[in-house]
Amino acid sequence: MKRKGRALKGGALLSPAILIVGMYLFLKFVLPLFTAPLPASLIFLYLALTVTGILIFNTLSGGSMEAFFGPIFRFLSGDGQAGPMKVARLLVLILFPLLVGWQTYASTAPSDHPPAENRTIHPAPPGEFVGLSNPVPNTPENVMMGKGLFAAFCSPCHGNFDGMGPAAKGFTPPPANFVDPGTIAQLQESYVFWRIKNGGVGLPIEGMPWKSAMPRWEVELKDEQIWKIIMGEYDGAHQKPRTWE
Amino acid sequence: MRGAHRLSVWCFGGIALFFGTAAPDSGFAQESVAVRAVMVKGGVPGEDPSAAAWNTVPVSEFPLSPQVHWAPRIGEVTAKSVKVRAMHDGQRMAVMLEYADPSEDPDDAAALEFMIGDKKAHFAHGQPMAQVEGGPVNIWYWKNKDAKVLDMNAKGFGTLKAQSQQDVTGKGVYQNGTWKVVFTRSLTTGDVDHDTQFKPGEFINIAFAIWDGKKLESGDLKEKGSQKAVSSWWYFRAEPPPDYSAYLYAALAVGLAAVFQFVIIRKLRKGRST
Predict the structure, then answer these.
(1) Which of A105, A81, A106, A108 is nearest to A93 (CA)?
(2) Residues 6+ apart with CB under 8 A from B148
(3) Domain A127-236 in CATH 1.10.760.10
(4) Which of A35, B28, B73, B229 has the lowest CB atom count within 10 Å?
(5) How confident is the model at residue A109 (pLDDT cuts 50, 70, 90)?
(6) Cis (ω within 30 of 0) for the bond into A39?
(7) How deeply is B191 buried, as exposed, middle or buried, from its count of CB atoms within 10 A (0-12, 13-18, 19+)?
(8) In a domain, B55, yes or no
(9) Strand bridging mode B148-154 / B234-238
(10) pLDDT tens track for A22-76
(11) Which long-range contacts (CB under 8 A, 24 or more apart) does B251-260 make?
């Protein structure tokens, strides 16, 4: 009877363990089915919150605390242990300091990697470029002219709207792939107009303008030509500009 | 009950210690984005591209594009990529570019570009940026027929100018359809406003440019001026001297964790026996 009681108390650790593993599997594999994959740091944060919640829940009363911590304490103290449990305890006692040592080494060893770059791909445009509408009528002729201008000025880098032009290879960040639904399909025409007109050097600091090879086309193209290019770009990439309607 | 409470505090402490040390590294691994100038003993091998020391340092390779950022542009260039090796001895540094070129021509040329100081500079000659106050760039330009390297600065198009104090030396050797060009300079100079300063361990930006100076039938050069093969910014680091302090910290952490365990288990046993 006493044995059974102990086993039941030991079982109090099972549900938290299942909860933590379940939460990890959900964050790692299930959630990405509906949204973008979560970064490891965010998964870590959610798991830390889960562990904290479990600890708070299990320390609300003396009884629940004993049920939760009892098996852990008995395991760690090693009282009356024999066979596999004794070996398991020894392993834990050896591995824990080694793990802490390894993590300390990993976080203090000099890094060989360049600093991480948190470049904002679509930073906020200047106020004068918000809410502009394309003044050029969307006619087949204008779309065709836009595609012609795109071929002449943009395709060396942006290729066949896919960002894989012959001049694309040496540039980092790479030229945008307009076929990708994460680029111009997410943007209003006025935003694209700003990016073409002011080019890479027009970006704010979070866009890292010093790295962008995008020319400042206002130097060489008229506004009307830029608007036509935008039309041709959306049509060629089979995308629609984002609207607020 | 009080004993159990104390133990739970110890356990929370232990969990906090674990999570504190097990937090994932915020940086992420990147590949083929940096030139590593390894530290060598006994000095860098001067301007000799064929020196045996070059065979012992790691090679980075960077793709090149036709320069299309500003006019006059070029649609196709000879050099598609450049291999880069670098080393330093704590005093002087040397960078070697290696790239394919079917012909040796007097106007063949190559250049390195660096930012100067803390201000960001656009890779295209440090041209002005609308919302960021940019800085100048330091350009080291080698041309075959001049048989020397020019130490230059630019801050915007049309501002490229050779420095009055020339600190960079170099040499190019052409063999079997390949150029090997070495640039050497001391890691630091007294002129922080015009010269990039190389501090071991610090990542700085580097960019490359290559000109195929072949004379076309028209008499024009295939590549000249802004018509060249370019890269945008990559990284360069002069490797620091070996640092073993991380091993010391790790050993200290192992010791602390072991003491922590010992105290916990002692408390547990005491609690059980009372």
Answers:
(1) A81
(2) B142, B169, B170
(3) yes
(4) A35
(5) confident
(6) no
(7) middle
(8) yes
(9) unpaired
(10) 999 999 999 888 887 888 889 999 999 999 999 898 888 888 888 888 888 888 8
(11) B251/A101, B252/A104, B253/A97, B253/A100, B253/A101, B253/A103, B253/A104, B253/A105, B253/B21, B254/A97, B254/A98, B254/A100, B254/A101, B255/A97, B256/A100, B257/A96, B257/A97, B257/A100, B257/A101, B257/B17, B258/A97, B260/B14, B260/B17
Q: Are B12 and A55 in contact (CB under 8 A)?
A: yes
Question: What CA–CA distance (Å, rounded) separates B199 from B220?
Answer: 42
- Predicted confidence (pLDDT) per residue in A83-100, tens digit: 888 889 889 999 999 999
Helix (H, G, I), strand (E, B) or coil at A43: helix
Flag whether B119 is in a domain: yes
β-pair partners for B115? B137
Q: What's the CA gap between B108 and B143, in Å, rounded?
A: 6
DSSP reduced 3-state for B140: strand
User: Which residues are registered as beta bridge partners of B65?
Assistant: B230
A204 contacts in B (CB within 8 Å)?
131-132
Identify whether B89 is part of a domain: yes
Q: A73, A99, A219: best mutation site toward chain B, by most B Cβ within 10 Å?
A: A73
pLDDT of residue A8: 43
Structural domain range at position B46: 34-238
Domain regions of chain A by residue span: 2-77, 127-236
- Under a CB-based contact definition with an 8 Å cutoff, are residues B113 and B139 in contact? yes
B9 in A contact zone (CB under 8 Å) = no
Q: Tell me whether residue B190 is in a domain.
A: yes
With contacts defined as CB-CB under 8 Å, which chain B residues touch A110?
A: 201, 240, 243, 246
Residue A167: what pLDDT?
93
How far is the first Cα of chain A from the last one, in angstroms, to the nearest whole number?
69
Q: What is the CATH number of the domain that holds B42?
A: 2.60.40.1190
**Do A154 and A243 form a contact (C-beta atoms < 8 A)?**
no
CB-based contact B129 A209, cutoff 8 Å = yes
If one counts the domains in chain B, the total is 1
Q: Which of B17, B259, B268, B270 is best to mutate for the A interface (most A CBs within 10 A)?
A: B268
Which residues in chain B have Cβ-Cβ distances shorter than 8 Å to A114? 30, 33-34, 203, 235, 237
C-alpha to C-alpha distance for B260 and B237, rounded to whole angstroms: 40
